[in-house]
Amino acid sequence: MSYSEPPPPPPQYGAPQPPAGGAPVGTSGMAIASLVLGILGILSCGCLVFSILAIVFSRISNKDIAAGTKSGAGMAKAGFILGVVGVALGIIYWIIVIVSGNVNWTTSSS
Fold first, then answer.
1. Going residue by residue through the chain (110 aa), what tens digit of pLDDT does each one get?
2. Cα–Cα distance between 77 and 34 in angstroms, integer?
3. How many angstroms separate the CA atoms of 9 and 27, rounded?
């Protein structure tokens, strides 16, 4: 071995590894819609359509969230709960409307 020769180059490595975890998953649009519809269902308790749609959208979004392709489990759960509360308030509202519509509230003083 001679000291006049340069040392050999270091071994070459492959391309750098991508960061762990891959690309971040996005938030489920159905979960966002479920939360918004749940809020609308609470605010308009006489209209059951918003609350029912909130329940349906939260169930659909849970399938995407369980598969791991989307995130937003908290929004889906909150939308489901608000949807159930909205349905309950809507039913109570319509029962009160029906019952109070059949009662004669006029008094006569003779």
1. 567 788 777 777 776 666 666 666 789 999 999 999 999 999 987 789 999 999 999 999 999 899 888 999 999 999 999 999 999 999 999 999 888 877 666 666 65
2. 9
3. 48
Q: pTM for this structure?
A: 0.71
Q: Which residues pair with 70 in a beta bridge?
A: 26
- Secondary structure of the chain in HEC code, one letter for each residue: CCCCCCCCCCCCCCCCCCCCCCCCCEECHHHHHHHHHHHHHHHCCCCHHHHHHHHHHHHHHHHHHHHCCEECHHHHHHHHHHHHHHHHHHHHHHHHHHHHHCCCCCCCCC
Tokens of 6: 């340069």
CA distance 50 to 39: 8
Provide the residue ranges of all domains of the chain, joining segments of one domain with +. 27-101
